[in-house]
Design goal:
Layout: H1 4-9, E1 17-18, E2 21-22, E3 24-25, H2 36-49, H3 59-78, E4 87-90, H4 93-103, E5 113-117, H5 126-135, E6 138-142, H6 152-158, E7 163-169, H7 181-190, E8 194-198, H8 210-213, E9 217-221, E10 232-236, H9 238-243, E11 254-257, E12 262-264, H10 278-294, H11 296-314, E13 320-323, E14 332-337, H12 342-351, E15 354-355, E16 357-359, H13 364-370, E17 375-379, H14 386-403
Parallel strand pairs: 3-15, 5-6, 5-7, 7-8, 8-9
Antiparallel strand pairs: 1-2, 4-10, 9-10, 11-12, 13-14, 14-17, 16-17
Helix pairs in contact: 2-10, 3-10, 4-5, 11-14, 12-14
Bound molecules: pyridoxal-5'-phosphate (PLP).
Pyridoxal-5'-phosphate is lined by residues 92-94, 121, 123-124, 169, 173, 198, 200-201, 221, 224.
């Protein structure tokens, strides 16, 4: 059992008011809030040991380097990576995906195929389209079902000897569907195709074990798991990362530089050109430790209670339809009310202090499938409460009356 009152006290932002009402923050799928433990870690860095890493012999630089590399170890253990150099710091999920897509430009030929799913965030679609344009490879799409799940039977028919790479998300940010990634990876591997999993939406709720999954690449953003914005991680199997060329050139990623020829540093530095988000990386490690202090199993169980309760209460509102009804879901509810525009609902509930997301959630293909312009999305975290869900239900009812 989680002590929610104690947990809420860790998040100073939760005690502010919005439009005269206590803030109810239900936009966790877009970014999560930051606990004092992580804020303190950031302040401590800038107050005591702000310095560039891996370069100076002076004390501050060594302290910053130690803290940054300690964070890499925390993240390595969290994902159960085999080697610490398989953890590449990035600016976030989007950066991680682009790094791999860019590397694949030199690995694909005309006639090769890559497979994406209809459930993806735009950041797991557009880089691959760019890759296909550059290489002449073909992009194939796993269709989705009415419940908002991947059509696994269709995937079985799509994957073939021509498939080089498959990329799907672990959890859909628009619908909350948890995808059967282990099966997806296994099948791709029987054809020697690599798999990249976009873990941005899963990471705050599910502790992925990259070795058990046997996944080739797994990408996340810190800001969805109680860390700061502008930092994330690309996990890649050592052999996979070694065959990818560097993404950006610059300092930190080299071994020897002459004008005739430059040789590159080994992993992970080959992919970490320039001064990174040092403080962000350190704070990301602290955020993961914080989540472990609470416990991933406890988080998943409590969030599921919130999901079940909110689903049941929202469905009592006449004309309300929930999109994404897969049995395996994280705590995300995408909904619309017949005859009303999601934007109008979002605006009214904000007047009552409640933050929800409205729109296509960077997943236009899903909206096209349902033939809707967008949805209202309420996404819950372990610091939310059933009372807050009651507030949302009341606010949505009020919006319905006002907009009728
Ligand atoms: C948030 C999100 C992204 C993008 O993450 P950034 O931090 O903006 O790079 C990609 N995929 C999914 C599933 C997401 O939820």
């Amino acid at each position: 059992m989680l002590d929610i009152a104690k947990i809420r006290a860790d998040f100073p932002i939760l005690s502010r008011k919005v439009n005269g009402h206590p803030l109810v923050y239900f936009d966790n799928a877009a970014t999560s809030q930051t606990p004092t433990q992580v804020i303190d870690c950031i302040v401590n860095y800038y107050q005591h040991y702000n310095a560039n890493i891996h370069r100076g012999v002076h004390t501050l630089s060594q302290e910053a380097t130690d803290a940054y590399e300690y964070a890499r170890d925390v993240i390595c253990r969290h994902f159960n990576a085999k080697h610490r150099e398989e953890i590449i710091f990035t600016s976030g999920t989007t950066h991680g995906i682009n790094l791999v897509a860019n590397g694949y430009v030199s690995l694909l030929n005309k006639g090769d195929e890559v497979i994406v799913s209809a459930l993806e965030h735009h950041s797991n679609i557009v880089p691959w389209q760019m890759l296909c344009e550059k290489t002449g490879a073909k992009l194939k799409v796993i269709p989705m079902t009415d419940a908002g799940e991947l059509d696994y039977a269709a995937y079985k028919n799509l994957v073939s000897e021509n498939t080089k790479l498959v990329f799907v998300n672990h959890v859909s940010n628009a619908l909350g569907t948890i995808n059967p990634i282990k099966e997806i990876i296994e099948l791709a591997h029987t054809y020697n195709a690599e798999v990249l999993i976009d873990g941005a939406q899963a990471a705050p709720h599910i502790q992925a074990d990259v070795q058990a999954l046997d996944v080739d690449y797994y990408v996340v953003s810190a800001h969805k798991m109680c860390g700061p914005t502008g930092v994330g991680v690309l996990y890649g199997k050592k052999a996979s990362l070694e065959k990818l060329p560097p993404y950006q050139g610059g300092g930190e990623m080299i071994d020897q530089v002459t004008f005739e020829k430059t040789t590159y540093a080994g992993l992970p530095h080959k992919f970490e050109a320039g001064t990174p988000n040092i403080c962000g990386g350190i704070a990301f490690g602290r955020a993961i430790e914080y989540l472990h202090e609470i416990g991933f199993d406890e988080i998943a169980q409590y969030e599921d209670e919130l999901l079940q309760y909110a689903t049941q209460e929202l469905l009592k509102i006449e004309g309300l339809k929930i999109y994404g009804t897969a049995p395996e879901k994280t705590a995300v509810i995408s909904f619309n009310i017949e005859g009303l525009h999601p934007y109008d609902i979002g605006t009214i509930v904000d007047k009552l202090g409640i933050a929800v997301r409205t729109g296509h959630h960077c997943a236009q293909p899903i909206m096209d499938y349902y033939k809707i312009p967008g949805t209202v999305r309420a996404s819950f975290s372990f610091y939310n409460t059933k009372e807050e869900i009651d507030d949302l239900v009341k606010a949505v009812k009020r919006a319905k009356i006002m907009l009728a």
